[in-house]
Amino acid sequence: MGQVAWKALFLSLFDYKTEKYVIAKNKKVGVLYRVVQLSILAYLVGWVFVVKKGYQDTDTSLQSSVITKLKGVAFTNTSELGERIWDVADYVIPPQGESVFFVMTNLIVTPNQRQAVCPESASIPDALCDKDMDCLEGEAVVAGNGVKTGRCLKDKGSTRGTCEILAWCPVEKRSKPKKPLLGSAENFTVYIKNSIRFPKFKFSKMNVLATDNESYLKTCRYSQEHPYCPIFVLGNIVRWAGGNFQEMASEGGVIGIQIEWNCDLDKAPSECNPHYSFSRLDNKSAETSISSGYNFRFAKYYRDAEGVDYRTLIKAYGIRFDVMVNGKAGKFNIIPTIINISSGLALMGAGAFFCDLVLLYLIKKSNFYRGKKYEEVKSNSRKSLSSPTLNGNQSPEQLGGL
């Protein structure tokens, strides 16, 4: 018995299997099959080729260079600085113009500081003292401006004072102007020059409109009417980002400028143009957050005739602009086209397989259809040995009635 089984197994290795096509006159399965086919075809044509452009090779390794240049003049009149004109060299940091630039809109000025001893600010908790022992000599004031000298300085009639420190004196002022000193920066303009390159396709372009009109860049401003003008009004940028310029100018903030390049290189190069979007990147809840805004300090140093070093300390508040560039380019290529078409044909086969499962295993007469599809044929016999076969006298109508 074992030898017979092994012999049958061995001989089965030389069996040849071929497909048998059976036309099943079943309307439900037929409708299901056509729905599956149409769905796959709609997905392949509509989504893969039209929406996702599956016939194209793509390049996302965008190479980009950004140069910025600001224009604008402001006038201020303060007790520390007097009447003063502020131009680009005064309020733009860094001055050379990069993809990240800062526009100063408000400031606290502490002029004529020099290294000496003076009382620490009373607003610093670690500087408060009742006696000299509270001011340990040589100890730095936590979150303060200098090093303690060992003396506790008190006003007349006061029982509490502040530690004397060695520092740049007088110490920094703490009061900030209620209104931004450079609020007129809202009308300043920035020229954003963006050059991009897609190395795979050796395609390069700039965001500056190609024109022979020399006065175009001097007069145009970016808007819906001039979407390809690279000159932006700062107040408009903040407004498009959902902010109020005067409110942001008081405490400072961060604005993101997104330049998106999505280029279909099967079309003319003139069709490849940038799209701009703007967003606020810092914490918007200025009233509820102690970490809101954007500021930093810098100093301007000088020396008097006697050789004493002085400085003017400036705590600058302002708006930082981050220019971010990304994009993707696509161009026809036969390889992704063939791959996506082959994937679609494979899905068609999967759809037919699904309908076979429904026909052979899920409907009421699945046993009948399964018997018609699978048949064993031997060369010495015309009849099926394991399942019924189609009788030559059966008509398609008779099969459909089943």
UniProtKB/TrEMBL annotation:
An example molecular function term from Gene Ontology annotations: ATP binding
Biased composition (Polar residues): 382-402
Chain positions covered by the region annotation Disordered: 380-402
Disulfide cysteine pairs (residue numbers): 118-169, 129-152, 135-163, 220-229, 263-272
UniProt keyword terms in alphabetical order: ATP-binding, Cell membrane, Disulfide bond, Glycoprotein, Ion channel, Ion transport, Ligand-gated ion channel, Membrane, Nucleotide-binding, Receptor, Transmembrane, Transmembrane helix, Transport
Glycosylated position list: 187
Localization in the cell: Cell membrane; Membrane
A single cellular component GO annotation: postsynapse
Catalyzed reaction equations: Na(+)(in) = Na(+)(out); Ca(2+)(in) = Ca(2+)(out)
GO biological-process terms attached to the record: calcium ion transmembrane transport; response to ATP
Binding site for ATP: 69-71, 189, 295-297, 315
Keyword Glycoprotein among UniProt keywords: yes
Native species: Ploceus nigricollis
Family: Belongs to the P2X receptor family.
Transmembrane segments: 31-50, 341-363
Job of this protein: Receptor for ATP that acts as a ligand-gated ion channel.
NCBIfam families reported in the protein's UniProt record: P2X
Topological category with respect to the lipid bilayer: Multi-pass membrane protein
Residues annotated as signal peptide: none
Full protein name: P2X purinoceptor
Main location: membrane
